[in-house]
Amino acid sequence: MNDCFELDTWAKIKEDSRRWWAGDLGRPLIQVRLKDRARLSASGGPPGHAFASYYPMSVPVEQIVDRWDEDLDATVHLGDAFAHVCPNFGPGVIAAFMGADLVNGDDTVWFYPTAEIDMSSHNFACDPENPWLRRCRDLVAAAVDRWQGRVQCAFTDLGGNLDILSTFRPSEKLIYDLYDCPEQVKRLTWAAPDLWWRCFQEFETLMHPTNPGYST
Question: What's the distance, CA 79 to chain centroid?
């Protein structure tokens, strides 16, 4: 593992970032990452995917983390760049945690409802044993355990409140709902952030206290 992953490197990155936000660093933050793709191609491990959800469920999360580790070792981090990984399951993955179908491509993810919701009776809730929630949770835990604070593990893209709602009530119908039942739209729009925060806190608990900050 290269020097970019040392804890004292993180101390400088954090201090420079703090000073930038305070307006007294005197320069912009510039991140440059150079990848040796030939080295990655020769590694013999599983292929790299932009979306972690694209790996078959039969691939253990530890193997995905192995691939991320190889990718990081084949990357030169310059300037203010820091080592990080992103357990990306697609923007708005809370919909999948709620039971929507997650449809993968190599470079995209879409979510589709298994059934159209009833606006008057629907409530947002996740099944703790949902396979996508378990997969994402296991992957984050494996990443945090592997690097113990030397690599920053990003949050999966939980999505926004209307993104989540529009998965189950597609936009061409949701726009009519704004006229036909605005109170129900408002109710679910405010229910979504409650679920969002519960998911956020669940992943934050997995990352705490070793994860060196947050991104995405």
Answer: 24
